[in-house]
Hints:
The chain is an alpha+beta fold. It has one domain (7-141): 2,3-Dihydroxybiphenyl 1,2-Dioxygenase, domain 1, CATH 3.10.180. It has helices spanning 15-25, 79-88, 136-141; strands spanning 7-9, 29-37, 40-46, 53-58, 70-76, 97-100, 103-106, 117-122, 128-133. The strands form two sheets. Strands 5-9-8-6-7 form a five-stranded mixed beta sheet.
Amino acid sequence: xxxxLELVMVPVTDVDRAKAFYVDRIGFAVDVDTSxxxxxxxxxxxxxxxxCSITIGEGxxxxxxxxxxxxxxxxxxxxxxxxxxxxxxxxxxxxxxHFGAExxxxxxxxxxxxxxxxxxxxDPDGNGWMVQEVNHAAAGAA
Length: 142
């Protein structure tokens, strides 16, 4: 039996501001923006190529404080190209970095080792995201 992660709740203070950030700055597609009853709004968005979406909204009852979500990973196959896209959209991602014997080091991992290079960004509420470079074709060959 498959167990698929398909939706992550992201707590925000201003739904319209967060929606604009994820769509305009990060490039997510809007799947749903609905208010099924007074006091409730659901906005579901999906990163390009992903089977997992995020939901922001009002009256969802998730109990998380805005900005409390940290460390959700988004995987890309070319971190430098991904960073350039984010910067072109007006986002402010970190520089790429990797980990080694000396700890966290700026730049891509030497040799572009799979699962080895990262960058981060935060939404307007401070929810923190990690972008990780993974070449799935190379990973499957290992």
